[in-house]
Specification:
By secondary structure, this protein is mostly helical. It has six helices and no strands. The chain folds into two domains: about 70 residues, lambda repressor-like DNA-binding domains (434 Repressor (Amino-terminal Domain), Orthogonal Bundle), CATH 1.10.260; about 50 residues. The radius of gyration is 18 Å and the shape is globular.
């Protein structure tokens, strides 16, 4: 997505790509009617956001616009989640996201160091 999308736009787009309506997403996430529409002006609570992300097979980071990649973090790591207890899976995914963010920041810092070294030479 090249232009900036808000949360509601991203949910709508993913739903459309998956052949689902917002009503379908709300039912699957056990949300009230038109709950997702309210996200245009009111931020959802964390639990509802995570549930919708799971229903859409994406990350909360994507829905919130922190990344333009809708692929959930566990797909990148090809993690077999069957050995992770159900109640710990969201925490585990959050830890993987932190690891990804740390690695990305570290790579940016290394790139910056190399750029500075090239400028000095």
């Amino acid at each position: 997505m090249t232009e900036e999308y808000n949360l509601l736009d991203r949910v709508k787009q993913l739903a459309k790509e998956q052949g689902k309506t917002l009503s379908d997403i709300e039912k699957a996430a056990k949300l009230g009617t038109r709950s997702i529409y309210s996200w245009k002006n009111i931020a959802p609570n964390t639990k509802n956001l995570e549930t919708v992300a799971t229903v859409l097979n994406t990350s909360t980071d994507y829905l919130l616009g922190r990344t333009d990649d809708p692929t959930p973090i566990d797909v990148y790591f090809r993690i077999d989640m069957k050995n992770v207890p159900e109640e710990k899976r969201e925490d585990f995914k959050k830890e993987l996201t932190l690891l990804r963010d740390f690695a990305f920041k570290r790579l940016q810092e290394e790139e910056k160091k190399l750029d500075n070294q090239e400028k000095d030479n």
